[in-house]
Amino acid sequence: MQLVRLGDVVASMKNGIYKPASEYTDDGVPCLRMYNIESGKIVWRDIKRMKVSASEQLDYGLLDGDLLVNRVNSRELVGKTAVISSAMEFSVFESKNIRVRLDTTKALPKFINYQLLARGSRHFANNAQQVVGMASISQGQLADFPIVLPDLDEQRRIVSEIETQFSRLDEAVANLQRVKANLKRYKASVLKAAVEGRLVETEASIAQREGRSYEAGEQLLQSTLAARQVQWVGRGKYKTPEPPQESDVSLSEGWAWATLEQLHLQIADVDHKMPKAQESGIPYISTKDFFGDEGIDFSKAKLITAADYEGLCRKVKPERGDLLLSRYGTVGEVREVSIDGPFQASYSVAILKPVRGFVPIRFLIAALRSDVVQRQIKRDVRATAQPDLGLAHIRQFVVPVPPMAEQLRILEELDRQLSILRGIETEVENNLLRAQSLRQSTLSKAFI
């Protein structure tokens, strides 16, 4: 097995085609972009099509066995690669990619592709040039990539063994993904049961069995509305929120419907004029800073000046215990503010200030994440270039209000079940990571 350069087994290399947006059309030829290269394969997703002449099809067409290598990307992704299959629709490729056509009397496309998968990412990350915030590799750098080159029979044996191992891993990963999807559905069903009175025995049922009275949801709602007026510090004369419209969804005995406006002192967003980013300052988060189910990544948030922060806070100021609801782009994600430090949220996020001391924050979060509210979000979201959910709609979303004693039991049972669920989810994620490590280990061992 000899060590050679990739260029030693290449018949030709060519950078892809560039055309302005006006040349893209629904009935054109597929143009593979850097987003279509993933894990050594072509991913047929979000395919762009363009007008291509006959001569351009000859120059930039992709044939069975061609390698498509990404030449411009972030440093950790530049150099990713895939093999073109004859089963794929005839396509051309964009300028951020390089087509590598091999001399197949010397090297098998899959054999070279697996070597690039095994070592290409680290190699090109260390050797790429930085161009306007992106890493870039040239044809010359790609040609200099070191490869091991046994005879063709040995190449076929190695490829066969890799694909056998990968087939087993693919089956395991598919099973884990099915488990992951089932867990997501189970979580949704638990939340749905929680806000429909099916997760624990109702307070009405317990009170009837014990022969006593209880505070119903309607009484809790009236107490909340009275507290809302006391806690309200807005401008002008206090205005009592309108009651919810009649719902065709039946409630458990002792429960009541309330609008989000009735349960909150304020539901607002900041002015839509975007403040300028600064080298240092106060975090200005958006939905892109949400991660996982609960997290907000303040460390990567845009920073703004203290003056801009103070100006934006004149309309609404996020504080500990408030809720953030994504309303633009990614719609319907919920986060609780759990820090005391100053920050502001962009207009892509609605800031909800609950009435303090009544309906627990955690129950509001469960309701917002449940099918009960998510259906209302889907109904009212405005389909523009980016999905957009208006504040007026958010204020009128209806949520169930159970008796307080029942809410506390619901939250206890919800915590118990979701804790078990999180443990299983963590195990699934760990196994998916192990599968990825095993895939990389298989490749590394094949080319020692």
Automatic annotation (TrEMBL):
BP-aspect Gene Ontology terms: DNA restriction-modification system
* Pfam families registered for this protein in UniProt: Methylase_S
Q: Which GO terms describe its molecular function?
A: DNA binding
Q: Does the keyword DNA-binding apply?
A: yes
Query: Does the keyword DNA-binding belong to this entry?
Result: yes
Keywords linked to the UniProt accession: Coiled coil, DNA-binding, Restriction system
- Residue ranges annotated as coiled coil are 159-189
Q: Where is the Type I restriction modification DNA specificity domain?
A: 2-164, 275-429
Similarity-based family: Belongs to the type-I restriction system S methylase family.
Question: By what name is this protein known?
Answer: Type I restriction modification DNA specificity domain-containing protein
Q: Which organism is it from?
A: Limnohabitans planktonicus II-D5
